């Protein structure tokens, strides 16, 4: 376990993931009934972007740093409001020194009845996360293999839930593991909303990954991808999200948000984006 998210916190991939996560949390709050967020690979929850590690890569500067420069047009400002309001709340003096990871962001958006179960396997990171939420009765942090939580923690007792699966992709077969993890979880909790993160880079088996997902009996799967540069160079060129049981408005929102993020975060002329149903009731004009 070499991966440490502090080197990547606030980068372009976090921007897409956290902007969508915030929208999914807000959507669940359309009903009064409580829900649970299960964050299977939670990280440390709060990142200091002035730390030596974050400064070393400077990745946040071409992610959240770019997005926070200047005003946003409508309706982008509205779509990003829950996400950026949390970032601003952590940085009352302006700029972005502190950046919320997924568990912190979800928690900042919660109502009193909502709950978070956060899994983190790295002992140091798990301890840091537990410290961050110490005394918070709405949050439970567990040092556990997040893949196991897809069995052990589902369905949540609230019977409403959002499951974020955001593994570090250190292993070769992580795409397959991610797809199979979803399939296993969905069998236990088919009414939950799922959000799966995956990297886009040279040689990534995206077609196989999508085909595997399409082979499952999961009827509503939306895919959102944003690449900020050509994948001919090494390293992360973009990222994707699979959203199972998305809110009915999400696809249209992505069709507004993704082109904007592409333009704002592009690092070269090969930046691209797409949002489409991987499985679902596709209308002819969709794609
Ligand atoms: N979800 C976080 C966010 O958006 O702020 C970032 C998570 S980071 C991409 C992946 C995290 O998973 C790392 O903190 C790593 O230590 C942790 N991790 C790695 N393998 C794990 C496993 N099997 N179970 C739980 N956590 C794991």
TrEMBL record:
Pfam families listed in its UniProt record: RsmJ
- The catalytic site is made up of 166 (proton acceptor)
Residues marked Interaction with substrate rRNA (site):
3
- Kindly list any coiled-coil regions of this protein: none
Where does the source fall among the domains of life?
Bacteria
> What are the UniProt keywords, alphabetically?
Methyltransferase, RNA-binding, rRNA processing, S-adenosyl-L-methionine, Transferase
The GO cellular component terms are:
cytosol
Similarity comment:
Belongs to the RlmJ family.
This protein's assembly is summarised as:
Monomer.
Function as written in the Swiss-Prot or TrEMBL entry: Specifically methylates the adenine in position 2030 of 23S rRNA.
The protein here is known as: Ribosomal RNA large subunit methyltransferase J
């Amino acid at each position: 376990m070499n991966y440490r998210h502090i080197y990547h916190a606030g980068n372009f991939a976090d921007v897409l993931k956290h902007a969508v996560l915030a929208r999914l949390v807000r959507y669940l709050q359309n009903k009064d009934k409580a829900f649970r967020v299960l964050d299977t690979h939670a990280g440390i929850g709060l990142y200091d972007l002035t730390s030596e590690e974050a400064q070393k890569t400077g990745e946040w500067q071409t992610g959240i740093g770019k997005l926070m420069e200047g005003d946003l047009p409508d309706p982008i400002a509205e779509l990003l409001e829950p996400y950026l309001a949390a970032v601003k709340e952590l940085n009352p003096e302006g700029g972005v020194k502190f950046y919320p990871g997924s568990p912190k962001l979800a928690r900042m958006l919660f109502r009193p009845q909502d709950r978070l179960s956060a899994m983190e396997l790295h002992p140091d990171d798990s301890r840091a996360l537990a410290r961050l939420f110490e005394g918070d009765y709405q949050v439970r942090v567990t040092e556990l293999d997040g893949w196991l939580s897809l069995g052990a923690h589902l369905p949540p007792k609230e019977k409403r839930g959002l499951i974020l699966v955001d593994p570090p992709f250190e292993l070769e077969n992580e795409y397959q593991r991610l797809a199979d993890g979803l399939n296993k979880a969905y069998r236990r909790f088919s009414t939950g909303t799922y959000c799966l993160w995956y990297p886009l880079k040279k040689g990534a088996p995206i077609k196989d990954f999508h085909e595997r997902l399409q082979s499952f009996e999961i009827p509503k799967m939306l895919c959102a991808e944003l690449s900020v540069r050509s994948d001919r160079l090494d390293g992360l060129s973009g990222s994707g999200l699979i959203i199972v049981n998305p809110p009915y408005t999400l696809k249209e929102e992505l069709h507004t948000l993704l082109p904007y993020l592409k333009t704002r975060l592009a690092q070269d002329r090969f930046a691209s984006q797409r949002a489409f149903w991987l499985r679902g009731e596709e209308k002819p004009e969709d794609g």
